[in-house]
Write a structure and sequence with these properties.
Order of helices and strands of chain A: HHEEEEEEEEE
Radius of gyration of chain A: 23 Å
Shape of chain B: globular
Distance between the termini of chain B: 28 Å
Strand content of chain A: 25-35%
Number of helices of chain B: 15
Largest sheet of chain A: 5 strands, mixed
Structural class of chain B: mainly alpha
Order of helices and strands of chain B: HHHHHHHHHHHHHHH
Oligomer: heterodimer
Number of strands of chain A: 9
Largest sheet of chain B: none
Strand content of chain B: under 5%
Radius of gyration of chain B: 22 Å
Structural class of chain A: alpha+beta
Chain lengths: 171, 484
């Protein structure tokens, strides 16, 4: 399951739970003695939220999501440059199965370098900002054509700022 | 002195506030229509030139954020008038400067063709690719400056009066209670604590915004005056995040002040409430790097802080404000429901529900695939349409004050239902589209994304219908002598 579907599912469940608690409280508001939660419940709720927070933080930040690990083994580097309103990519083919480091630059305003797979599913992104080089690493698991899109509003042809590259097994 | 039950001062500027809310209601409707047009264009239901789409996008963003701020400020002013004597002229100066800003912004967009989005991300205002000129960009930025000055004036007046009345910032924030030294009876009312905290963080946010606006303005006419894009981005998102959050935190004052009239239980400044607001003061300012999670040149600690504080920010909201409201509702014996109480409760519920996708998007690994997709407007439309804006409409309905001791009438129920159903469907379509990787702020959508936009357009129409009924109800209610 793509990460996006999991995120949507978890979000909708939690949103429904909160909405349900409010709906239940609204219904109870017309009746006497429906039993309001006590302060001890609030305290336990806060501790529970903190505990969940610690676990989620530890799991989601280790390893560091922006880590560039490619220096330790075989890798490829791709330089991408955004400009109003096109992407320049310094290679047409990117190797399959090895870490690929993208260096994102811009010649004018801020753009968002995003890469989508053949199903138009966003795989990763980073910002391309004047005066800086943002790095992002990705390992492609499927060969094929990948689409580059702009993920930061950059003016009147923002939506048309696309390009593509091919992922293929290295010879 | 017992501050919670202190004698309320008579004569908050009801007339000025009512007029402001009328203006806000009309502008909200207009901005919703802009949103409807954009979704219809993305759904291929109408033909819209991309240049016009991005102008509408810019107007919608600036207009909605500005109007949320305006309604929040009117609520803050109205209720602080109950506790401290506020100088009337300040509110009129605030409103005048605000409207001057609106005129400049609308002129920049619809006369000058400015379409740099409400976030004026440096150096886009100065580099339009030939679409708009320097003067249009300058007019837009000057419009923001005028609105910023308006807010600073308002906060200066509210802040100095609260500090004088409650013995300093700490007194108004109920710090003695936080330290375990004061009592609930001696603490200032919840509205005052919220107003003091908001005054502090939105003053800081506005000053930072003014600094980056001034730099961008100088750069427009003197390009050799270089601005660091990363620094500018940090300042813009600090300002933007703080400002829109301040709008919600000001609007919730209406909940603290009005809901007790319905439940019969006063909303008190307890120790946990005071601690929560002091944490909010800190979190609102520390969390902004969660807008820069895809700027990998940012120090790693700042991005980790953005993720962690983003999560922590949910705790005061869920465990204090939402939890307390649920307790008050459950404790009520025969809660009186009308359009005002329903919208105010909806506001807290929508805000709480909307915090979930926001917090999840604040995780770096999730943000990598969700940032700047329609997931983002999905979560902020939830806590605006069903949150801040619902609270503002609730305040408006309370202001016109027609007693409704029975359940809401057919008109009110229809308006409320249309608004909730439309708002829920509209925001869900954004979230689903975000999960399907549809980028936000694209004038033209791929064929496979069109259906969600079309469905969203229908829901947008429902939201507009509900909101139009609220505004109509308010307009008619203003003639009602039983209003406040």
């Amino acid at each position: 399951m793509p990460i996006q579907s999991g995120v949507l599912l978890i979000s909708l469940v939690l949103m429904a739970v909160i909405a349900g608690l409010f709906i239940s409280a609204v219904r109870a508001s017309r009746k006497p003695d429906t039993g309001a939660p006590r302060e001890a419940v609030r305290t336990r709720f806060i501790y529970a939220l903190l505990a969940v927070g610690v676990i989620v933080t530890a799991v989601s930040l280790r390893p560091w999501p922006h880590a560039i690990s490619a220096a330790n083994g075989p890798s490829a580097t791709v330089n991408v440059t955004g400009a109003m309103w096109y992407w320049e990519i310094d290679r047409e083919t990117v190797p399959l199965g090895v870490p690929v480091i993208f260096n994102a630059r811009t010649t004018d305003v801020t753009h968002g370098f995003g890469v989508m797979d053949s199903q138009d599913r966003l795989l990763f992104q980073t910002q391309a900002m004047p005066g800086y080089v943002n790095q992002v690493e990705h390992v492609f698991r499927q060969p094929g054509v990948y689409r580059v899109v702009c993920m930061e509003y950059c003016g009147v042809a923002h939506h048309a700022m696309t390009n593509e590259f091919t992922v293929a097994a290295a010879n | 002195m017992d501050n919670n039950s202190a004698q309320r001062l008579p004569g908050p500027q009801a007339g000025a506030v009512k007029f402001t809310m009328l203006l806000a209601g009309v502008v909200l409707l207009l901005m919703m229509i802009f949103g409807f047009v954009m979704r219809a264009a993305q759904g291929n239901l109408i033909d819209l030139d991309p240049a016009m789409f991005y102008q509408l996008l810019t107007a919608h963003g600036a207009g909605m954020v500005g109007t949320a701020g305006l309604t929040g400020a009117a609520i803050l002013w109205y209720f602080m008038g109950r506790y401290v004597p506020l100088a009337r002229g300040v509110f009129w100066a605030f409103l005048g400067l605000f409207l001057l800003g609106v005129v400049l912004i609308l002129g920049a967009i619809f006369i000058g063709g400015y379409a740099g989005a409400w976030t004026f991300l440096f150096p886009l205002p100065a580099n339009s690719g030939g679409v708009w000129g320097t003067d249009a960009a300058a007019a837009f930025l000057l419009g923001y400056v005028a609105i910023g000055v308006a807010f600073l004036l308002l906060y200066l007046e509210v802040g100095r009066k609260l500090i004088a009345r409650y013995g300093g910032i700490g007194g108004a924030l109920a710090w003695p209670l936080v330290m375990g030294k004061g009592t609930v009876e001696d603490a200032p009312p919840p509205a005052v604590v919220a107003a003091m905290a908001t005054t502090i963080f939105n003053t800081i946010g506005t000053v930072v915004g003014a600094a980056v606006l001034a730099s961008s303005l100088v750069n427009l006419y003197f390009p050799e005056f270089k601005v660091d894009a990363l620094l500018a981005k940090n300042m813009i998102y600090f300002f933007g995040h703080v400002f829109i959050n301040a709008s919600i935190y000001m609007a919730v004052i209406a909940v603290y002040e009005i809901i007790p009239e319905y439940t019969g239980t006063p909303w008190k400044t307890t120790r946990i409430f005071a601690v929560a607001w002091s944490l909010v003061l800190l979190f609102v300012m520390a969390v902004y790097p969660h807008h820069l999670l895809q700027d990998t040149v940012m120090p790693a600690w700042s991005l980790a802080m953005g993720q962690i504080v983003s999560y922590l920010s949910g705790i005061p909201l869920l465990a204090v404000t939402a939890f307390s409201l649920i307790v008050y509702l459950r404790k009520a014996n025969a809660m009186r429901w009308d359009l005002a109480s329903a919208l105010l409760v909806l506001g807290v519920a929508g805000w709480s529900v909307g915090s979930v996708p926001a917090i999840i998007d604040g995780m770096i690994s999730v943000n990598k695939v969700m940032h700047n997709t329609q997931w983002v407007p999905g979560h902020f439309h939830t806590y605006l349409i069903l949150g801040e804006v619902a609270m503002s409409f609730g305040f408006m309905m309370w202001l016109i004050g027609k007693p409704e001791h029975k359940a809401a009438g057919g008109f009110n129920w229809a308006a409320f239902s249309a608004y909730v159903l439309g708002g829920t469907g509209f925001t869900l379509m954004f979230l689903v589209s975000g999960a399907l990787s549809v980028p936000r702020r694209w004038a033209v959508h791929a064929p496979e994304w069109v259906l969600q936009s079309q469905i969203a357009t229908g829901f947008a129409l429902l939201v507009i219908l509900g909101a139009a009924m609220f505004v109509l109800r308010y307009l008619l209610g203003l003639k009602n002598s039983s209003g406040r």
